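Thread: Newbie trying to understand structure tokens

Hi all, I'm a second-year student working on a class project, and my supervisor (Dr. K.) asked me to get a predicted structure for one chain before our next meeting. I've only ever worked with sequences, so writing a 3D structure as a token string is new to me. If someone could post the tokens and maybe explain what I'm looking at, I'd be very grateful. Here's the chain:
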Amino acid sequence: MRTARRYLASEIYRSSAVVLIALLGLFTFFALIEELDKVGSKFTLTNLFYIQALELPTRLYDLLPIGLLIGATLALSSLAQRNELVILRASGVSGLHMMIMLWTITLPLVAGAFVLSEYVTPMAEIKSSEQGMALLGRSGGGRLESGYWFKENNDSGGVRIINIANLQGNGNVSDVSVFEFSDGQRLNTVTQAPSGQFHKNQLDLQDVTETHLNEQSHEALSQDKAPAQALVSIEKRPELTLTTSLTPDRLIARVVTPERMSILDLKDYVDYLDANKLQTKRQVVALWRKVAYPFTLLVMITIAAPIGFMQTRHGGVGTKVFTGILLGVGFFMINQLALNVAMLSSLAPWVTALVPNLVAMALALGALIMMENRHNVRRRNSSVTN
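---
Reply by user tm_fold:
Sure, no problem. This is what the structure looks like when written as tokens:
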């Protein structure tokens, strides 16, 4: 059985690698065409190739499940066409036993997908976002026209609102405005700086201008008489250090798509949002989808099994591969629909992350069991006839 498992693994790995290379090349080519109009004096063709190279791990992360489905279907269909699967069945290997072999073969891919998901893709996505901001001035992740907005509790028990016009990577920021509110939601101080840098729970600002509002300013503004004293005072500082719950990683979390973050960083960002009473549904759904991602590969190999095990007279390799593509695209669309449903409904995030996988796994196993029962019936009938 070890020899058979190694042979199946080599065929599936080879076919999946070919399919993934083809899909990566195709999607990268389309992305290059789409970005060519941005090439100029500042953003050169070399920069474009560099950013596209940084996006390859993210693209591989997205394409790995469907690439495995198509590759496994192609490999198993080729083996069935050459009657090699028939030889395995004749040697006493049942369909369910063969399914266990396929799951065992997929485990190294699951481990590789975990490394890709937790280490390679987040690093590449962060680097790609930093390069995009530096070269194109573009950024994603909920940036408004006024920049990025963050909320946290300050040291006095009130609320601090931080506005950052531009994130420059490595914790560097520009055009920073900090609004300090008292516990009564009254504005006390406005701090502005052209540049700053975030460290671990610390924000260093340079060339700072602080505007302090008098405690009686709110009452004075509601009266029709001129105040007896100035309502605001302005103070200039060469630098200022603020204690903050924000870190460079949490800043990048606003730029990077939640599904591209590592589980630990995503959990840390969810904790930050919870602590400051901010919306976390999008991030929690992404966290559950990250947890379910390696399991998706097992679902894909399970779907490929009944398609590949079909007798060749029921359809050639091309028909089976086309069926695998349709199922893969359908599964992807259902997953995306589940994500949108989770955002708009009150369903638990784990339901929308796991239920599509579990349903697809159950249907594939059901089809495999039906095929196995039909095979056993034919074999008994053949024995009786003989």
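A couple of things are worth pointing out once you decode it. The chain is about 60% helix and 15% strand. The mean pLDDT is 82. Feel free to ask follow-ups in this thread.
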